[in-house]
């Protein structure tokens, strides 16, 4: 991430690696709460499912307001100092502490719900301080769409590694440490160290990236009013939010599916590894496919593939004799599609930012990435929130580690629906938004080089 004009063109592998390693940390943080926090509350702390869902969702509603504010602050810092480093560093230092605190509640029931809610708000706020300016950096690292796609591919490869480490390691650590509160406490300490190590590298290295915010950044309200004219951005964001909600519901349902349908909580790590490991291989393959057939076309194909594979989980997992091998194979197919859902929207995001700059004369990277991360956060919160409400409606009974509770058949069906058919429907619902994005991109300013449904930008 070297400065000056060099930052606008080609970027070396060392610079790419120093930037992308931060996504190992963001992948870890994004995954562990979505995978384990709801289950931790309902099956270890005795928090009722409906209350636990609110605890997971309501702090994320705060993020929807806070992230755009961080984006505007990041733009102001960029104008004042020429860098986005201070906010990045604050988030990198605060997040590990707040993350660990989420899993260290000394209370049960309503007291535990309050503890987790407060610490989750703090962790989400710290994450926003890092994530918003971090996502804004690629638009300033290079002016070339192809180079920005390469940056995104590196970032998503590291994000996939982080997700894989989190989903494979975190449940395993809980099990190895004896499950219950002790298991979650050990897991939280290990993960906090990993977060600190991975987030500090790009936070410190970002001092080499010169920010280019343009003229005086608009205030938050004015920036939002101006952003409303960028219809392509909001169409892309709408699709991304629906897809994030689909993935989040499946993520929240994974430990429940492993426990109540596949034979035990220990299979959570296996299930998750089968879902994420193929995406580590598939990310560069999707990058090559996008270069040949176009990012938007590939994104649409991956969305349809994810919907089909997740719908197939219903008969695969719900048969009388559970076919664990079929479930794991379908999860691997989902992982291939998931890779595209991660890399391609993020490679298209900087194009919408530059298209808006051609329209308004302002490069509002921080404002748009603040809106983007707020939308992503809302989608990731809606997933477990809706899943927990469905569990409550289906009669799912919460418990503590020492006092497990048998579940009704209706509750078990609710678990499986959240892991299969509901994510499939949300993915299908995102396709019209992607088509709207394609139409609106066709009307982008001629000065902005963009791809079409048929191919990649020149």
TrEMBL record:
- Show the Pfam families listed in the entry: MFS_2 (PF13347)
**What is the name listed in the Swiss-Prot or TrEMBL entry for this protein?**
MFS transporter
Q: Which ranges does the record mark as transmembrane?
A: 20-41, 47-66, 87-107, 113-136, 156-178, 184-204, 233-254, 260-286, 298-317, 323-349, 370-394, 414-434
Is the keyword Transmembrane in the record? yes
State the organism named in the record: Kitasatospora phosalacinea
> Carries keyword Transcription regulation?
no
Q: Which terms are listed as keywords in the entry?
A: Membrane, Transmembrane, Transmembrane helix
